[in-house]
Amino acid sequence: MFTTRTGRAIQPRSLSRSFERLSASVGMRPIRLHDLRHSVASMLKRSGVAPRDAMEILGHSRISVTMEIYTHSDEATQREGLGRLGGTLFGEGDGDPDED
């Protein structure tokens, strides 16, 4: 929850407008404030944070919400996973694909 300087709750639309102004002032491409939750979920995953901990951080009631809706995969983590699999299958070091 976000509050004003006097401690009153900020209305969701007012918070969104403030975020839009702030992001525009720093040259950020337009995104919804809510999109940051998806980014945080994906960064937690990439950082190796356990799914249950990510669920708690994001305030979700079920891990499935965190993992199926908020957490997104990317090419780098997919390559890393495939590299580890290759290392396991073919006994090549730790499976780091950039280690050649």
TrEMBL record:
Entry annotated with the keyword Transmembrane: no
Keywords, in A-Z order: DNA recombination
Regions of compositional bias (Gly residues) in chain numbering: 83-92
Tyr recombinase domain boundaries: 1-83
Residue ranges, annotated region (Disordered): 74-100
Name of the protein this chain belongs to: Tyrosine-type recombinase/integrase
Organism: Streptomonospora arabica
